[in-house]
Design brief:
CATH topology: Cyclophilin
CATH class: Mainly Beta
Distance between the termini: 25 Å
CATH architecture: Beta Barrel
Low-confidence stretches: 1-20
CATH superfamily: Cyclophilin-like
Shape: globular
Helix content: 10-25%
Number of helices: 3
Number of domains: 1
Radius of gyration: 16 Å
Strand content: 25-35%
Order of helices and strands: EEEEHEEHEEEHEE
């Protein structure tokens, strides 16, 4: 019998050999490579949605288009640090938004390097996602970043490339818009 290797994903032990417990994705950008582990057992709907976009090739040619830093959110009482990316704007999915998998149900938190789905309200996430720079508890359920306090759907963690995320964050911005955006050259399962 094979020994099961235990790993930690956002502080939660996972078994690497279980198919849905750990899906690894490589994000190749104009600033370098990011490797993320997705937690399909904890956030199955969110991971399924993300992989649907990935497998359809919609992230290839996509962009990181937003960098949120403490100094570029003057209207917000709750400051966060994230970079946001999404599918190629020339490719449309036609898919409906997904149900919000709240952090109270998944147990995944917005820690340094967490990957999460962007949304404008509950049950509005489509293909845009963000990566956390530092711990961002205000993005969890009950957090004050959004008036509805429902939080966002964290669904994995960066394994490699936190330095790349910081490079993207420090790229030139107009307000929060990266100018120019940072290209997602390719995104693949590994």
């Amino acid at each position: 019998m094979r020994r099961r290797e235990a790993i930690l994903l956002a502080g939660v032990p996972l078994l690497a050999q279980e198919k849905n417990l750990r899906v690894t994705v490589r994000i190749e950008t104009g600033k370098g490579e990011i490797l993320v582990a997705l937690s399909g057992d904890r956030a199955p709907k969110t991971v399924e949605n993300f992989l649907r976009y990935l497998d359809a090739g919609l992230y290839d040619g996509g962009v990181f288009h937003r960098s949120v830093k403490p100094d570029n959110q003057p209207q917000s009482a709750v400051k966060i640090e994230v970079i946001q990316g999404g599918p190629n704007p020339e490719k449309k999915s036609g898919w409906e938004p997904i149900e919000l998998e709240r952090t109270t149900l998944t147990g995944l938190k917005h820690v340094n390097g967490a990957i999460s789905m962007a949304r404008s309200g509950p049950n509005t996430a489509t293909g845009d996602f963000f990566l956390c720079i530092g711990d961002q508890p205000e993005l969890d359920f009950g957090g004050k970043r959004n008036p509805d306090e429902q939080g966002f759907a964290a669904f994995g963690l960066v394994l490699k490339g936190l330095d790349v995320i910081k490079k993207i964050q420090q790229s030139p911005v107009t307000a929060q818009k990266l100018t120019p955006p940072v290209k997602i050259l390719k995104m693949v399962r590994v």
